[in-house]
Amino acid sequence: MAKGKKRKAAPGDVATNRQASHRYNLLERFECGIVLTGTEVKSLREGKAQLKDSYAQIRDGEVWLIGAYIPPYGPATRENHDPERPRKLLLHRSEIDRLVGRTRERGLTLVPTRIYFAGPRSRAKVQLALAKGKDLYDKRESMRARDMARDVARELREAGR
User: Fold this and answer.
1) What 3-state class would DSSP assign to 96?
2) How many CA atoms are closer than 13 Å to the CA of 12, on its beta-carbon side?
3) Which of 43, 87, 96, 158 is least surrounded by CB atoms within 10 angstroms?
4) CB 114 within 8 A of CB 126
5) Would you call 154 helix, strand, or coil by DSSP?
6) Mean pLDDT of the region 118-133
7) 82: number of CA atoms within 13 Å, CB side?
8) What CATH class does 13-134 carry?
9) How far, in Å, CA of 99 to CA of 160, rounded?
10) What pTM value is reported for the model?
């Protein structure tokens, strides 16, 4: 990828957390709704959000998204939102109970991987992943495997010419 070019997200995606797959082994993914104010939704529709250092936390039987940055909406002057406020995530009670058990017993964490608009009414959704942290050698191994796959694909492409 050339320097200075911004990587395009998948269609419908507002923000992706590309560092998540590098830092963690993503075991299981969940789709959940998010409680937003009007200016946050407008800012998301402009495609402005960052998930790099964010995580999800379970407090009092509710799941909260912490550290996600949704910038203030420009045209809204006084009625703007706090860009890094904790946001409530919407999951079914059975899913929350399962997540509580998994995160407590195995030392797993909840990492948001992307924010997108989905459904016929175009609601904002967050994809959470149940993740286990990678060690340094795991990161090196995954980078080595990715490089080898890229080299094999290049050789096959050149052999086909």
Assistant:
1) helix
2) 11
3) 158
4) yes
5) helix
6) 86
7) 6
8) mainly beta
9) 48
10) 0.75
